[in-house]
Each structure stands twice: as structure tokens, then as C-alpha cells.
Amino acid sequence: MTDIRVLVVDHLSDRREQLVSLIESQEVVAVQASSCEAAEQVLQREPIHLILSETELPKKSGLYLLQETKKHYPDIEVILLTHNSSSFNLLQALRQGAYDFIIRPVDTGEILSNTLARAINHHRQKVGRAKQLAELESKNNQLEQALRRMKRLHQAIRSLALCNDIQSIFTGMLQATVEEVGAKSGFLAFFDHSRGHLGIKVSHGISYAVSHAYTKQLPAGLALAVARRAKPVLVADEFPGGLLALGVEGELGHLITTPGMLSVPITFNGRVAGLMLVSGHRKNGPFTKQDLHFMNQLVAHALLLSEKVGQIHQLQRGQHCHTEPHKLYRDPEAHAESLMNRS
């Protein structure tokens, strides 16, 4: 039995039953309708691939059914059966999209079987071409999106390369990530390894009061657990129950916004220094692997730029900064050197 469904339309039950019998003998599913109106109702509620219809139907003709079918269901092939084989009728039907004609009487199943086989093969080829075209368009769209994102990544990297201090590099990195992935908020937090505390140093989209409260130490909740995991994290949309259970009062809703979360560890010399975390996707949809890849790549380049200026460990100690740019340290070189000696 094939997956093709044929709708047989004829107002005379004996002729209709004969056609159904011939069709089912070919292991094809047949559905019946006694009028054009009944056929339209079938098309609205059931999947139909081919229509085999008498032209001379009461009230509305088979030609009318052909027109309506091609208007609303262009992928359905229509074969007409008729006693009137005039060239005018044939031409009219072909112009309106009929696949073929069968001239009555249908004495044997040979003509019907051959016509159906050709129509089924034509339908499957058309569906296959449409599927291939859709897949090709999808791949082209994905490629175009990847190229656009790569361009924006390069633009963000060039902007960061113009920065000459650690605060500007990381503030720019966070802002570029939040804007690119469509997050509502984000922050960078770094470990003070001497005490094991994780504190926020840069934030975006988070109130100053909340961000400043966690400058020295984040609570032992979701953010700290993600930082200690030291691996990229993608929560595309709604948080799973296990992650929600890690959140503590004041963290979810104020510091981490649902739905969705992206997190990338920040490492230096093989050691986890902290993390960048953004959360709360906007109307552009759930976070994706491409979003996480963009974020990961930008962090990697920012770390290289930070290493150049020799200031990466400044964020493990020192004052909190919000979105307004200002100098973190009056003597960054000396401070970086002291932190490196402590590591």
C-alpha cells in the first residue's frame, strides 16, 4: 500500500465504486465524494494527493473542481474523466492545470492504472524537487547568517583592539555580546582565588544597586555553580528544573533573567579566572549554538588583547565598574604584577 491518497469524485455510485475498486487493486488508498461540494469538504479535512473526477457533475462541474483545487491546493494533481472528448474541453482543462484526461468508458484498469502511475510519479518528483529546493534555500540562509555573524564578530574584535585598558576591553566585549545575541542583561565575574569568592566586575542591563551588591562576592547559587563548572553553558529557552533549583533569592530575576542563558568561562594560563554570563533572550527567539560560538570567540580574542596589555588579573581584585567607562586602577602595571606574584 502506497502513501498516496486518491479522491474519486462521481455522482453515480456504481461508476464511483468501479473506479475505487480499480484504484485499490493497485494498492492505492481511495477516498470517495459524490459531488464537487463534497469533494471540497474532503480536501479541507484530509490529505489528498490526486483527484480523479468526472467532468459532468450536478450543480458544479469537474472543471470547477479543477479550478478550485489548483487555486487552493496547487500540488494536487487532477485527472478528469469525460464522455465529451472535444478539443475545446480538453484545451480548457489543460490550461487550467489538469494533469490528464481519461475518456469513458473505462472498461479495463489498464488505462487508469497507467495514468495513475504516471501521475503518482509526477507528484513525487514535484514534491522531491520542492523539498530539495527548500533544503537548498535553508542551507543558503544558514550560510548567509553565518557570514553576517562572522562579519559582526570581526567588527567587534576590531573595536576591542582599539581599547588600551582592561576595563574598556571587557566592557566592550560584554556589550557586543549582549547586543549580538539579543540578551536582556549580562555580567562578567572574576574569582578572588585567595578567598575563593566570585565577584562581579562589569555588568550590562543590571541595576547598579544589584550589581554593586555582588562586587565582592556572589551568593553560592547558580552563577557560582556555572563558574566552577568551567565549561560553556547554553540554555536555549526555559530553564530546566535542576538549574532553577540552584538559584538563590535575589539572583534569579535580578541578576539572571529568564528565559535562556549563555555562559563562557574566562581562563588565563590554564586557570579559570571567572565567567561571562548573559541571560534573557529577547523577541528574536531562543539562544542558539551560534550565539554561544560568537560569545566564545569574542571572549578568546578579548583575552588575547588583555594579555597584550598585561592587565588580565586586575579584575580579580579592585573596585566594581558598571556600564559607565572609568579607570579601574591608577597603576595597572604594578597592580597586575602583584596579582601575578600572588597566583
3D architecture notes:
The chain has 343 residues and is of the alpha/beta class. It has 2 domains: 5-129, 3-Layer(aba) Sandwich (Rossmann fold); 163-342, 2-Layer Sandwich (Beta-Lactamase). It has helices at residues 13-24, 36-45, 62-72, 87-95, 109-161, 166-181, 208-213, 222-229, 241-246, 289-309, 332-342; strands at residues 5-9, 29-33, 50-54, 77-82, 100-103, 183-192, 197-204, 233-235, 261-268, 271-281. The chain has a 5-stranded parallel β-sheet with strand order 2-1-3-4-5, with helices on both faces. It has a 5-stranded antiparallel β-sheet with strand order 7-6-10-9-8, sandwiched between helices. Strand 9 (261-268) and strand 10 (271-281) form a beta hairpin. The longest helix is centred in the middle third of the chain and has 53 residues, at 109-161. The model is unreliable at 319-343 (pLDDT under 50).
